[in-house]
Amino acid sequence: MSPFFVKAAQLLLSLSILIVLHELGHFIPAKLFKTRVEKFYLFFDIKFSLFKKKIGETVYGIGWLPLGGYVKIAGMIDESMDKEQMAGPPQPWEFRSKPAWQRLIIMLGGVTVNIILGFLIYMAIIFTWGTSYVGFEDLPKGFAIEDSFKKYGFEDGDRIMQVNGKEFEDVTRINQHLFMRDINAISVLHQNGQKETIQIPEDIGTIMFESGVLRPFSPIVDPILDSIQKGSAADQSGLRKGDKILSLNDQKVTYWSDFNRLKVADTTKKALKVVYLRDGIENSVTVTPDEDGIVGVYPKIDYKFQKKEYSLGESITKGFDFGYWTLYDYIAQFKYVFTKKGASQVGGFGAIGNLFPDAWDWRAFWGTTAFISIILAFMNILPIPALDGGHVMFLLYEIIAGKKPNDKFMEYAQLVGFIILIALLLFANGNDIYRAITGK
Predict the structure, then answer these.
(1) Residue 403 needs a FRET pair 20 to 30 A away by CA distance; which of 251, 259, 380, 393 works?
(2) How many CB atoms lie within 10 A of CB 172?
(3) How far apart (Å, rounded) are the C-alpha atoms in residues 191 and 259?
(4) Is the pLDDT of residue 12 over 70?
(5) What is the pLDDT of residue 378?
(6) Which of 330, 400, 314, 421 is nearest to 372 (CA)?
(7) Helix and strand element counts for the chain (H, E)
């Protein structure tokens, strides 16, 4: 099966799980508070449904448009814009008749489920598969340093000893921490045996984002090919396992990170001139990456990964910690969305689908599902009308002010929020299409 369909299947399954559980987060408290739920749908059923069945007072169904799902709660101004129902007198089973605190719990239910689900999945992953990391001793060749970071005092071959004065368990995560965490000092061991503590600018994350240097530290890996993807551009060009890359488009390649950097940077040329060494003889070949920019070559990873296993109790603690920092990091980088460059990088379903691997891997699937669940929780709680966060915002106003916003205002707010969401959806997926066409 092609990688596209594998990713699409994983995306569809992941979203289906998350949508159903999110909507259950609204459905269950609504039923507990004796509020009528008229519909429970996976995906949207505009004009028609793929499946539907009425059980009790609720119609359960599957729509044909896989952009989300919903529960239609009686007496609530939502995306259905059911004005006829709202025009009648309030009924005791309706949402609008319930106390504000009950309505608040109903609206927070979906987000709460997504957060809890994300954390539980991380706990289960850690208990089942443990964690992998690369420590100080496991990376003897150290890091290749991007040129713009050498001005701070870093050198090729540096090995990370401490970050902010503490031991750093997984040195391969240094780029992520630099970009999204509060790092002010990194202690390194240079190749000459000298130890040095290097001070980091407070705005290092912004510097990395604006310069496009998001991986200033790359583990040193020799540019020797270990595997070639069958049928890829590299395979068709004649490159083989064991070939050592010497240059790319006439620029010297010392480490594998140089090859990756030059391949990405040279976007003006579709064809790449690759000079390589095979059996002591220097050769050259032209490689044309596919439409996704993939060449299809992979180097030999010669540094060690350590595996750590956890008891059930340790998995709960570690999983909670991992979930917390996942949410923290996502919120930390969210500020860049409001910049011109950040807005151009916003992605839709294509970008989300690319989070999944080309081949089915349950560990990767559940890890990505947990990540998406936490993202959905954060995005849903934003104070935008038509999202859960918009309803929560108006409910908090009601609790504080002691009065509800009038129904006409809520209808207009819901409509505006829905237009905003559609615009964002079109923009994000438009970015995906643009990148697919231009390769940028």
Answers:
(1) 380
(2) 20
(3) 22
(4) yes
(5) 93
(6) 330
(7) 13, 16
